[in-house]
Design a protein that fits this description.
Number of domains: 1
Number of strands: 0
Radius of gyration: 19 Å
Distance between the termini: 12 Å
Order of helices and strands: HHHHHHHHHHHHHHH
Oligomer: single chain
Strand content: under 5%
Shape: globular
Structural class: mainly alpha
Helix content: over 70%
Number of helices: 15
Largest sheet: none
Length: 301
């Protein structure tokens, strides 16, 4: 298997794992007495704990950081990752697994708008068109064109779009961190750690342990954290050793379509033809946004 084929395979498996994340979240929120911020806390805590244990035993050098790195890592975890995870889980609760995932992918529009002043990235016609298509597609998925939706589910639409904005901020912060840290695993580990610490401040004993003795709920929560979350992030990171970031990002853009299909098949969620069309427009926007000439891959062996 060539390096390119190996990278594509790893990215596809990682994207497939990612796509199941909102399915697990929706199931937990529906079948157990679990608040969104509580779920976000335990998910981030289990991921951080797993990474800390693994790297402490395997590659302790990845856990070494300087004092000058702490302000960024604290802000990255507590203000970026924690707020995004909490908001996105609320979106899953309000909108369902399929719609919330697609709405999170309106992030290309916000990325284009924010990358220009923050990272001095040039706005090309592809990026501008992708931003416009992304917003149009998200409006179709959320049915934001229908006045009655704003009467029935205005909070769901606003939270879903906000999750896309926060996803863009999270991505931009991660892009900036690549210039400062040798390994993305370091940023990921401390990001989830400080996100868990921030989310812990929102918990009380009765909310944090609301699952009680529902061991099947705890098991699903652990599987969610160690499986789709950690495996998804991990395999996507590994794929970047063999693929350019642009190609990996295009592959990961399959997530909304996979999640929507799984949500219909497993959770019996319903999408009408305008929502499927809107999802297709979002997918096209993500692919277009990543169609700039790609940089060289990190490993060419």
């Amino acid at each position: 298997m060539s390096n390119h084929a190996k990278g594509v395979f790893i990215a596809l498996v990682g994207t497939g794992a990612w796509a199941t994340t909102p399915i697990f979240i929706r199931y937990l929120l529906t079948h157990f007495a679990l608040e969104p911020l509580t779920l976000a806390f335990w998910r981030d805590f289990i991921v951080a704990l797993t990474l800390l244990v693994v790297f402490r035993a395997w590659k302790p050098e990845l856990l070494r950081i300087g004092r000058q790195d702490l302000p960024f890592l604290v802000a990255y975890g507590s203000l970026s990752l924690a707020v995004f995870n909490g908001t996105w889980i609320y979106s899953v609760k309000l909108n369902g697994a399929a719609v919330s995932t697609v709405l999170a992918y309106c992030s290309p529009a916000f990325t284009v708008l924010l990358a220009w002043p923050l990272l001095k990235e040039r706005v090309t016609w592809r990026k501008g068109l992708a931003a416009a298509l992304s917003l149009i597609g998200c409006a179709g998925v959320a049915k934001a064109y229908a006045p009655e939706i704003w009467q029935v589910n205005p909070l769901g639409i606003l939270v879903g779009v906000l999750s896309g904005l926060l996803f863009a901020i999270y991505g931009l912060a991660g892009r900036w961190s690549a210039k400062r840290f040798a390994s993305p695993w370091t940023v990921m580990t401390y990001g989830f750690l400080f996100a868990a610490v921030a989310l812990a401040l929102s918990q009380r004993p009765q909310t944090a342990f609301s699952l009680g003795t529902a061991w099947n709920g705890w098991l699903i929560l652990v599987v969610l954290a160690v499986g789709p979350t950690l495996v998804g992030y991990g395999l996507y990171t590994m794929s970047l050793r063999y693929l350019s970031p642009s190609i990996a990002a295009v592959i990961s853009s399959l997530e909304p379509a996979l999640t929507a299909t799984l949500a219909v098949a497993l959770l019996f969620e319903q999408l009408d033809w305008t929502q499927w069309l809107g999802g297709g427009v979002v997918l096209a926007a993500v692919v277009l946004a990543q169609s700039e000439p790609p940089p060289a891959p990190l490993v060419v062996e």
